[in-house]
Design brief:
Urease, subunit C, domain 1, 2 domains, 4-stranded mixed beta sheet, elongated
Length: 183
């Protein structure tokens, strides 16, 4: 299914120039076209679902410290908030929890949700805990060996985020799938 993402502008390179009035067409998991909204609407509008976001579409954030965030911190379950709070636990507080692989897996999934909510589309490991590795692989986030320049272009995988004027993430898309949407 085609999706036309209408935004205030597209920044094809993370720190590059803003193409105001541009939009992105996604076909399945790939970017089909980037260009002025009016042109893309004329070419794809009849067959595409149009999504409008009040923000700037970029390749998304890259998180180089993902291994530390996911393997050296425990992200509490909301049901544990009264006892543990809602912020990640490290150090002595983490050591006192008696972590199991099952608990690491749940923590990693909650940590990944936080990363997606921040507009993260790529991260770096290595991830040594099997449950964390599995959670990362299933999340759809792109695991990179290091800070590789990421560019939005036709034919490339549709991994991007849309950021509001205040810098907060509105939407995160991985392989054309909407994986986070601010409420």
């Amino acid at each position: 299914m085609l999706t036309l993402h209408r935004v205030r502008g597209v920044r094809p390179v993370h720190d590059g120039a803003l193409d105001a009035g541009h939009a992105v067409v996604v076909d399945g998991g790939r970017i089909a076209a980037i260009g002025p909204y009016e042109e893309l609407c004329a070419a794809y509008g009849e067959s595409a679902r149009v999504r409008e976001w009040d923000g700037v579409l970029t390749p998304g954030r890259y998180e180089p410290d993902a291994a530390a965030l996911l393997e050296a911190a425990y992200h509490p379950d909301p049901r544990e908030a009264d006892e543990l709070g809602s912020e990640p636990l490290t150090g002595e507080a983490l050591a006192a929890l008696g972590m199991t692989e099952t608990r690491w897996g749940g923590s990693a999934r909650r940590g990944l949700q936080r990363l997606l909510a921040a507009g993260t589309t790529a991260l770096t490991g290595p991830f040594t805990r099997p449950a964390v590795r599995t959670a990362v692989r299933r999340s759809g986030l792109v695991e990179l060996p290091g800070p590789v320049p990421r560019v939005l272009a036709a034919g490339e995988p549709a991994h991007f985020a849309v950021f509001a004027e205040d810098g907060s993430c509105l939407v995160t898309v991985l392989a054309g799938r909407l994986v986070y949407r601010r409420r």
